[in-house]
Design brief:
α2 crosses α4, α5 crosses α13 and α13 crosses α14. It contains 15 helices and 8 strands. The chain has 2 domains: 3-67, Transferase, Pyrimidine Nucleoside Phosphorylase, Chain C (Transferase, Pyrimidine Nucleoside Phosphorylase, Chain A, domain 3), CATH 1.20.970; 80-352, Nucleoside phosphorylase/phosphoribosyltransferase catalytic domain (Pyrimidine Nucleoside Phosphorylase, Chain A, domain 2). The protein is globular. By secondary structure, the protein is of the alpha/beta class.
């Protein structure tokens, strides 16, 4: 079957079409990834999924099609966790997932941060922006990521390096210009043996996200409705999440007030300079540099919302990786990592190795 056939299955109206099975979704996305379909037809397929709404079975099929064509890092043993924030990045918030990942690595976790830079249609600030501002640190080579995790317990890995076919899809996403299920699917690129910390958007999608993670074979994971669909919770109110622990899905309420971390406002960039027309904030050199400054300040011990959000996010990562029994224990361990200099030491070891 061609992608045209699967488009007919989706239909031109909600009442006329049907959902794809997991196997159909696998084959359809495989056709796209193998480059045999036109950009127009691929864009039509993604748009049809947007108005129809994507199901658990479809997401699982899409993710398996990607994973079967990926070069994944191989990291064995306990404490391995993949942080999967939105590849489109943030428009109003600094990406604190790098600081959180370094703090978790300083606490003993082995962290793979899967990211992209300026991914459309949003083209916002991402972990890749932070690593760029720090002098590099993002690799396109899964083997290099393995080595970094083994030696330094942290690696930022570009998703395109694992799956080059994403480059073509980025062009389609740019042309479509609106968010499609592709924005969700790319966050599911992660090694099957890793605990997964996944950012989810607001609305009734948490259960879907965790069910997809579980069906893909992960025994541990967490979906968090963080800021702008990311993994970083707000400090102004409660955030929702669901933890996957073996066969159990455990609802979570993340209340910063329970840990003395609540603030009137979340972390903000120290400046905002709109980019040129048609460019996203991730294209703005001043904003990219500011992201690096925020992360350096957190690692240097500067108090404030950025520190609190990074600590809370690191605690969630440690809990998802089963390195701590409770979120409170995770926060205690994350604070020790930051205040003792262990988190900064991870970054320094990367610098000495010439990765940054």
């Amino acid at each position: 079957m061609s992608l045209r056939d699967y488009l007919k299955q989706l239909g031109s109206h909600r009442s006329q079409g049907r959902n794809l099975t997991s196997e159909e979704a696998y084959r359809a996305f495989g056709l796209i990834l193998e480059g045999g379909e036109s950009e127009i037809r691929t864009g039509a397929f993604l748009t049809a999924l947007r108005w129809k709404g994507v199901t658990v079975e479809e997401l699982v099929g899409f993710a398996r099609a990607m994973r079967d064509r990926c070069r994944m890092p191989r990291v064995d043993g306990a404490g391995f966790v993949a942080i999967c924030p939105p590849h489109g990045g943030y428009e109003t918030q600094p990406p604190l997932d790098v600081a959180a990942g370094l703090i978790a690595a300083g606490s003993g976790a082995r962290v793979l941060l899967v990211t992209e830079r300026c991914a459309p249609p949003r083209r916002g600030l991402t972990a890749a922006s932070v690593l760029q501002a720090l002098g590099g640190g993002l690799t396109w080579d899964p083997s290099e990521a393995e080595a970094w995790i083994r030696e330094h317990r942290f690696a930022g890995l570009c998703a395109v390096g694992m799956l080059p076919a994403l480059l073509g899809l980025r062009k389609v996403a740019q042309e479509v210009g609106v968010r499609t299920p592709l924005s969700t699917v790319v966050k599911l690129i992660a090694p099957a043996n890793a605990a997964v910390v996944l950012g989810a958007r607001s609305g009734p999608v948490l259960g879907t996200a965790v069910e997809v993670i579980q069906t893909l074979g992960h025994s541990r994971g967490m979906a968090i409705q963080g800021l702008e669909g990311g993994v970083v919770p707000t400090l102004c109110k409660r955030s929702r999440g669901i933890q996957l622990d073996g066969q159990h899905q455990l609802p979570m309420t993340i209340d910063p007030g329970d840990f003395g971390l609540q603030c009137e406002a979340d972390a903000e960039l120290p400046l905002f300079m709109p980019g040129e027309e048609g460019l996203g904030s991730g294209d703005n050199p001043a904003l990219v540099a500011a992201c690096g400054d925020v992360t350096r300040a957190v690692l240097a011990g500067q108090s404030g919302p950025a520190r609190n959000q990074a600590l809370l996010t690191a605690a969630l990562v440690l809990r998802a990786a089963a390195l701590v029994p409770t979120l409170a224990d995770g926060l205690h361990r994350a604070t020790e990592s930051l205040d003792s200099g262990a988190a900064s030491a991870v970054l320094e070891s990367l610098c000495r190795a010439g990765t940054l």
